[in-house]
């Protein structure tokens, strides 16, 4: 059926964008986001332009294009008018300004501006409380997706505390809830933590199977925002247990460093470089470790008290 006007075209393409995004079909979602921007630019409607830019900030980040994601997010924020739409809610029952702030913040963090990133995520220091609130809101409003993410973030907190069995249970619960909500967005965020927790709990083979399956899946769907972190986690797993394989671990860390550099993802590069430098130091290769890590660390001029940057020192 031929669509009669641009409004119908917008609604149809926006629906396809949401569907592809929810199914982790990121290449298709990115195509739809660009089509929405083309339509919005032809119409010149501010709200439509704001939504299109926010959608592109989202799709570009999932594809691993952090600079482009930040650029689109900033354009969306520039279009926001506090007088006209202070509480604007769009077609997806979300505020495009909040979407833009979220993806600008994440991009800034990854691009080596962690303090600017945290400025757009002011509640980071109370992660457990926010996770619990998300679970409560998800349950009370019957938003399965929100409840799943709250459960996953609670798993992050338990993994950080070293409560790995609890983290495993929470991550698996979150992944099951995402599947029940017919979405796979979030899978690549939670599965590396699940894999690492499995390894720390002495179940290294399960952890490696989890991370290898994730690497294969993200290559198929075109997701790239966490690929460096995924390979870094694989390297950590290869160093666990009685069958540690430092040669394979080194290759995994080097892959992580290369992926991060190619995406200009300085924060991911730092984390991968720290892991590789630790391995080299254990092997007595301290000069190589310093040569790798020093220039990465020196690329940061803010957030120097954060755990990863402190570890790099």
Provide an overview of this structure.
74% of the residues lie in helices and 0% in strands. Helix 2 (26-43) runs antiparallel to helix 3 and helix 11 packs antiparallel against helix 12 (227-238). With 313 residues, it is an all-alpha fold. It has a domain at 6-109: Serine Threonine Protein Phosphatase 5, Tetratricopeptide repeat. The model is unreliable at 88-92 and 119-125 (pLDDT under 50).
Radius of gyration: 20 Å
CATH-defined topology of the domain at 6-109: Serine Threonine Protein Phosphatase 5, Tetratricopeptide repeat
Supply the CATH class of the domain at 6-109: Mainly Alpha
First CA to last CA: what distance? 62 Å
CATH superfamily of the domain at 6-109: Tetratricopeptide repeat domain
Total helices: the number is 16
Unreliable segments (pLDDT under 50, ≥5 consecutive)?
Answer: 88-92, 119-125
Shape assignment: globular
Determine the structural class based on helices, strands and strand pairing.
mainly alpha
Q: In sequence order, what are the helices and strands, one letter per element?
A: HHHHHHHHHHHHHHHH
Query: What's the architecture of the domain at 6-109 in CATH terms?
Result: Alpha Horseshoe
The biggest beta sheet, please? none
What is the strand tally?
A: 0
> How much strand?
under 5%
Helix content: over 70%
Mean pLDDT across all amino acids:
86
